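Re: the multi-chain job from yesterday

Posting the exact lines I submitted so nobody has to dig through the queue logs.
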Amino acid sequence: MTISVHPDRLLPGDPALRDVARELYRAVAELPITSPHGHVPPQWFADDVRFDNPTALLLTPDHYINRLLHSHGVPLESLGVGREDFTDEEARAAFRTFCSHWKEFRGTPMKYWFEEQLVGVFGLELEPSEASADELYDRIDALLATPAFRARALHDRFNIEFIATTDDPCDDLEHHRRIRQDPDWDGAVVPTFRPDKYLEVVRPDWNRDVDRLGECAGTGVDTYAGWVAAMEARRGFFKDNGAVSTDHAHLDAGTVNLTAAEAEKLYSRARSGQISTPEAERLRRGFLFEQARMASEDGLVMTLHPGAWRNHHTETHHRFGADVGADFPFVTEYVAALQPLLDAFGTNPGFKLVLFTMDETTFSREIGPLASFYPSIYAGAPWWFLDTPDGVTRYRAAVTESCGFGKTSGMIDDTRALLSIPARHDMARRLDSGYLARLVAEHRLTMDEAMDTAHDLVVRQPRRAFNLVGSD
Amino acid sequence: MTISVHPDRLLPGDPALRDVARELYRAVAELPITSPHGHVPPQWFADDVRFDNPTALLLTPDHYINRLLHSHGVPLESLGVGREDFTDEEARAAFRTFCSHWKEFRGTPMKYWFEEQLVGVFGLELEPSEASADELYDRIDALLATPAFRARALHDRFNIEFIATTDDPCDDLEHHRRIRQDPDWDGAVVPTFRPDKYLEVVRPDWNRDVDRLGECAGTGVDTYAGWVAAMEARRGFFKDNGAVSTDHAHLDAGTVNLTAAEAEKLYSRARSGQISTPEAERLRRGFLFEQARMASEDGLVMTLHPGAWRNHHTETHHRFGADVGADFPFVTEYVAALQPLLDAFGTNPGFKLVLFTMDETTFSREIGPLASFYPSIYAGAPWWFLDTPDGVTRYRAAVTESCGFGKTSGMIDDTRALLSIPARHDMARRLDSGYLARLVAEHRLTMDEAMDTAHDLVVRQPRRAFNLVGSD
Amino acid sequence: MTISVHPDRLLPGDPALRDVARELYRAVAELPITSPHGHVPPQWFADDVRFDNPTALLLTPDHYINRLLHSHGVPLESLGVGREDFTDEEARAAFRTFCSHWKEFRGTPMKYWFEEQLVGVFGLELEPSEASADELYDRIDALLATPAFRARALHDRFNIEFIATTDDPCDDLEHHRRIRQDPDWDGAVVPTFRPDKYLEVVRPDWNRDVDRLGECAGTGVDTYAGWVAAMEARRGFFKDNGAVSTDHAHLDAGTVNLTAAEAEKLYSRARSGQISTPEAERLRRGFLFEQARMASEDGLVMTLHPGAWRNHHTETHHRFGADVGADFPFVTEYVAALQPLLDAFGTNPGFKLVLFTMDETTFSREIGPLASFYPSIYAGAPWWFLDTPDGVTRYRAAVTESCGFGKTSGMIDDTRALLSIPARHDMARRLDSGYLARLVAEHRLTMDEAMDTAHDLVVRQPRRAFNLVGSD
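And the result, structure tokens for all chains:
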């Protein structure tokens, strides 16, 4: 059995809309990719890596795929998750397991992205199945050994104009420096400051991590003021190394404007291990407020990804660690949670805050409305569990009517799966074209307006939201 | 560049559905407008005002438009918000600012309504832009000076059969009396009783306002019973002056059936400034319960608009006051909140309660189901942030399957923007026609049933929900 | 006026999609019905009952229909609800009342199901109306007196391959035994274990009911361990009599893993009438956890239906009892509530948990994601208030993109209305065909994949989710 990717895939099924959508899509299909937030390891580009094997590249690190296989009874260890000792034979068997479960991916974006990669990146039209698994594995493996499939070649072939990674505040950004200083390659790969673990006071390792933060910043961290100074130093270092944003993910979006006295008191209790759980939460919300204060001064865009209940299954967490598919969306609230932060910085011209969610009820109820008043707020593209054909379509329908197109972030792929980046951005362009086509068909936009907007969504909006070169 | 309004605008883009929708729409397009709840100042009709200038009429008071301009960095003061000293030159500049941001309104209902007003009310087909701003301004300004654009002429041209304003309980309703007694004009303009501020005990001015209530009612307000008597008196006065409903907007929909003793105790603490925040909330919920009790006796329909977090940005509130766009939807709950009220009055034949929401998750989860059991409850039309093409469509899809069409309120424009009223009602008729056309195409309704329903939604449902003349 | 049921009813209105949907639907239209959860009384099949009259069969027990009539001011007693003394004349009058309110059912599934029954089951094409009511009543009544309309004949005509009832743990399952041992009929009618009332400690009759549980199980119930032993005994008895699942409905989905000591302490306080409300809730959540523990051992599938606020209107409850339409959906949460249960049993190969909801916000936010990781979890079909054309369509769009088709339950009718069962399953097949057709039109599935999936949804998924014979 062969697979094929239809030229009109993801465009509206209705012929009248499809023709309009196709015209819009064609106008933006070949534009370069801007990826202001994602998780591709910078070392891949610094070292121009050659990827190990199909499983190590496409399956083991992809918690979307692992998750669904696990839900059908496939043990995570058989997919290589958390395994240092995973053999070639096991990698091949894992790929076979995946292929034999191929039909379980129907209707999911994982099927869509995988097919796009097979056909679009590898040029293979063989449908995954138990029978085809070994042939697919071998052919992909052979391609991965060729120069055209090294990290930089893929990046260039994908027409990636700008890509951001996600990095620890103590990272020395050596990979980024090497990329930047390499005369042989001109890829724009910048870091993103991700300080979550230094804010999560309840984490067992928090104290040790804060010590390390103080060391790498070269400041004392015995006081709240010291913690702030360390953060400011590291943010500055990231900014000097090209960072345009900071990324924040906590269970909720809560913020609080602590007085200096309370901040110091809570911090002191935290450092001495005597802080209560509610106090730790309060301190974390104070820390997040402080990050926004810094952002309004240093101009790094703040992106907020709240609402994931992480490591929901204890045994899975203990055996396999974090980010293996056992994270779930949780009821999320923004209007009350962000009020202290927005009251202080929401209209500050130097401040930008991109809001992401896994709780789509907030699109029309909170995120769209907030973005339609506060100059600082942009409605982030659909994220985790909503980065799907229907999820994206519901997002546009839910936010556009309050905040228009001009206060949305543009496509954010948020992925570590380098080979899926073209498919993800192409998907967004197709779906946005479909949404715009509907507005044209309903005479809410003229074709000229839709065409201009389609272009804006790819080019102008990410530049605007992330203060990139070329933004107006 | 010119704009035009297409005859099929807002009808489904799919040709098969569009033909059916068009037929349904045409059958109701010219029916008179019933507007049972809105915010047009009665003085406009009493004095048959001539409107000042395009900005004062179309921009400064429209917090939908201000909000989105503000989100793009336009200062509210430059739009005339909160300005007594706004000059003609500044008004013209504000209009230019709006026109130069025209593209940011794409996909929003503000663009739709504005175009409808330009073409449908002013007969102008010039697209707003920096280049066209002055010409548009001058041409609208010239039209506003003509008799055809005075308040009453517009009202008559818009074919408004019935319109309600929103008024303070202490209002002397002099404007309404003058309209009613004017032999030269027969517009039906009735007041609506809006007592919120007398229920919000936490407001700094609450005590002073209650004093004033006592004065205008001619009753003592030293006791809870006195407060009730004053409310009853003023409700009676409103009813004598044509009112058909009372309107209520608080952060939540909470109600409680207080004993007389607790009510008096809480009221006494409130009047003496010694009430705690939770007690004040409890008293407010008791007050709302009491309003429902009165409604079940005097027959004024109760409309409830909970769930707006008002004045979210302190500085904006201090500088510009309320209702300037810094209000946001908030998670809203009805089933638990209204249980005490519905337990007491929900099946009372004299009682009607129209539920509005800004949290669309409640359409299928709470409002539709409640309206499908309680004879008193009507599912209110989509309000603020949801009074949009897709919002209305989602509303119909979410409530109809539980409560049918016969327990929905019909179109409520809830607007102060007189010139947008035809566009808003026309929009509802178009969207309802589109929804009905889908049911016809899916063979869930016959064309005869759909035609009858389209008529009911415009004529029968507002009459039913608001006890208007002609209701069955 | 006549009614007719169109061959393409509920298929997409768009002609391009409709053709694809029709082809998919035809491939599954005639497949037998599997009904793993519902409320048809087993006595109907044991005794092969002849139904009393149209009102007693179609109206009085149907709280969907009663509810909407009540919302239009029809007293429940006039429909026979809670009436032992309901006369034939009153039954006829009730049917007339229903027919005269026929238009109020437009857009609801009650209209759809009723028409399907009229035409499909009774072969009557007369539209309900005040004028046609008596004729309809007489013609249905005459048909009910014929052998073809006895319970078993209907069951066989409906092609029901498997049907589960819902039963009290103390039920002697005599009806099921008689059916099973009857050599003249081979219908598969199995019981379902529904222990809710023995878990709801706050119920006034709880203690008495637990006493009775102990008696029927033949175990002491003075201790928590005794309660558990009694439950295990009765679950075993149900399993021996063919049960495949247990059903659980509480206000929330909360679970807690109590220590043996705390469980005994709470239980003791409960039995002695000294338990507080929060403790009673905690004990109920401990009981539910315990049921999951038993399920992971005995293999009975657990189905969970949380989130109904029951008996919302006190007077209605006192006069008419439970299940008369005064139950409403309530905000529901799963990710936190089920964490203790899933942490303990979520990956247990012997455990299955089907999650239902009346809060559709949880489809994309919680239920789909949970089913996409935990092998035990299946996303239950849309239930109460969401078992509607648009509700089902939104469900598929919301869960499929995370958990695919293979982790959904297949159609669950959950109904007592035997005559509506074919219409309900047919509706699901039509709507699923429409959803699949859209995926084909958007090139997300090939026609072969869609065809295979359509079949899976009818045949494979209920078998999988409920461990039925033939499951893979």
